[in-house]
Design goal:
Number of strands: 15
Helix content: 25-40%
Largest sheet: 7 strands, mixed
Shape: globular
Distance between the termini: 23 Å
Strand content: 25-35%
Order of helices and strands: EEEHEEEEHHEHEHEHEHEHEHHEHE
Radius of gyration: 20 Å
Structural class: alpha/beta
Length: 342
Amino acid sequence: MVETMQAVAIHPTDDPAPATALHIITIPKPTPATPSTALVKIRAFGLNRMDLLQRMGMYPVPPQAPSTLGVEFSGIVKGFGEGSEEERQGFEVGDEVFGLAYGGAYAEFIVVSVRMLLRKPRELSWEEAAGVPETWITATQALYLIGAFQPGQSILWHAGASSVSIAGIQLCATDNASQIFVTAGSQSKLDFCVRELGATAGFNYNTQDWAKEVLAATDGKGVDIIVDFVGGTYFQGNLDAVARDGRIVHLGAMGGTRLPEGTDIGAFVRKRVRFEGSSLRSRDEGYQGRLRDMVLERAVPRLRSGELKVFVERVFDWEEIVQAHLLMESNQTRGKIICRVG
């Protein structure tokens, strides 16, 4: 007899599916196929903006991902696939873990590679741990692998109160950035970034020309690194605000993928600017595992000590998944939205 579990599904509807299309159904419980894969009973999972896009049919889901939403979770290891215990990388049944998956976290159980698991520190709650993997791994990727950040450099984080930027601001603040600037759409979000996260200053994209403000704050030099989730509508401003030999890290296109008429790309040559786009979910396990190791080295010890903090906006029971998605759609959050399972 096939074992079953509950999971969040998307009710068939005309695209794009609204949040109200989400509901809980019964599906087969996954089974780990190799000793390097673990079955984890999920205690909590985190929401990410890609979940909204996937729900609406607007996200390129990797072929190895199940149809169930969700890429980050915390939980308890319940089993492994058959084979050599050496391939478990030291994990045991009963271990409390958190981790990253290609999909399937909106459920009671998930099967995931042990390469993408980390042991949950006792200092973090299940809800806090579930908010770490996607967020902190993406921030680490943007800051260190792509941005090549070094102490003493300056940086601009767009969407300053987003979960990735919240993590990134803290990382570069503790790694001695010279200046940390942010953009956001409200004064309360800017105040949060400056007073609670350690940003140098913030600029309201609704009322200020943030590119001019960045140049003014840096005596016309610009910033060494820009991390951008907006895309087309910020393209020119990023080129104006980046410093000579600077890097622009492009992680999203909330402002569209087409450039406004009259965009001047002269800064690429004049300033020797490097522009690089990237994603995380489409990467292979080796690349993601490398980033997991960086988070384990750079972030986890400081999360345990309290030097770094996981900011959780709100915790829902997973039966309230519709309300959780609606809250994320409101763009009013300053931290992770987490769902508690069971």
